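Let us work through a complete example step by step.
Step 1: write down the sequence.
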Amino acid sequence: MTDAHDTAADSPLRTTGGAPPDDGGSSATEAPIPLLEPREGIPPVIADETALARVVAAFEAGTGPVAVDAERASGYRYGQRAYLVQLRRQGAGTALIDPVACPDLSALGDALSGVEWVLHAATQDLPCLREIGMVPTRLFDTELAGRLAGFPRVGLGAMVESVLGFVLEKGHSAVDWSTRPLPEPWLRYAALDVELLVDLRDALEKELDRQGKLDWARQEFDAIASAPPPEPRKDPWRRTSGMHKVRRRRQLAVVRELWQTRDRIAQRRDVSPGKVLGDAAIVEAALALPANVHALAALNGFGHRVGKRQLEQWQAAVDRAKALSEAQLPQPGQAVTGPPPPRAWADKDPAAAARLAAARAGVSALAEQLNMPQENLITPDTVRRVCWEPPAVVDAETVAAALAGHGARPWQVEQVTPVLVEALSPKEA
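Step 2: predict the structure and record it as tokens.
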């Protein structure tokens, strides 16, 4: 370990302008140190079963938490699969694994079962890690820890700089990680992403403990680790950008047909759907309801770069939507399972609107007092649901039960219950 890394390990919370406002230490004046090379150099990419077996053995024999990261090819490839997995653990060093060449990493996941995994923004990486057999039983999320501790900037680079005093080079975060072979500068960047992750975890743990929030963070981490995979999104075509312009059911059907056609093509070609046809073009065609290929070609997004065969397949999708019966057309809005949008509350239920306004004000004040974002204190959806359908008898016990029923963790229930009891209690006339 270099002197610079010794400094990182010895300084659990260094501030360079991004620490929590209530930090008790003095702000460091020295400039942050650029982190240019992994301490053992760039490791070779693991791309065969023999090398993978050696990595599994090394990481199983290592000690302490394991830093884990994954790189995807968002915007380039279909889906969110991992194209590189990075790990670092004391005693094992850093490993870079190609999950295209080694698509089953369940042996590695099993070897690390029971070990605490350190990830940054864990919910972003867990789905693609799960696909290749890597599922943590314990984790520490450094981004979420930063939010709970009150850091104003919680990206990995900002956290490493403000907490540890090092600058990470972030120039390759949005590259096409499906590229093979991966260029050396990209591999250096990937290795550096896990270089100080455990150091950051250790420093944030001390800061959370200092603020009395460590148990809160552990509850949040446990909730992430134990959460089941998310259900597939219903009617994903409704998330097409610009959908607010589409009003008529026939036009909605065109969006649906074009979106589904695009998705099939993108999946078959393994490219990002946006590279097949842009959302703006889908909405344009839905609004215009073109009668033929010539009318379609005149629309934005279907110009001279789109070949005749492609135009014909898009027009066929439009024609299928136009041929649907009224009963087959999609409804103009998604089914609402919870309360209506808050903007409608004043008309539908003025008393509920008043409860929500009081609850929002109380939660906002408490979040400011606790120095954390409101959405980490309690989800806005939970507040809305409790305010729309409050307990028949409002007291600490019933409100706490309602919050827990909507998935709030014990620390959230303890903190938020008094605020909501006050907001939900009938006011004297």
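Step 3: interpret the result. The first strand starts at residue 33 and ends at 35.
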